[in-house]
Structure prediction request, 117 residues.
Amino acid sequence: EGWDLTDSHIICQQIGHPELAPVAFHNSYFGDGVYPIVYSNLQCIGFEDRISDCVKDTYLQFSCSRDHTAGVLCGQDCQDGEIRLVGGPSESEGAVEVCFDHVWGNIAESGWSEKDA
Prediction:
């Protein structure tokens, strides 16, 4: 609960990327993890140097399942609508990725034609 962009920014800053806009993910987007949840209800203000400096509940103060593991993506600083080709042998061929909500993602091939390309 309470996981937001401010908390995500502190994580990105702590791992050495304060200049990159973070994206916050909820509900174990990247998986449930293998360790117990030790922080919950983070309330970072944005001036903290480390996530441990934020107001939070710690392990014995809450009961939470791992399907609520927080996630963050640092460095996906793209603008909505940008496209790129990745994984091909040159810059002019590859899988199509599009920036949506500041995150790179794929396009499903259903309905895809040469006209779309």
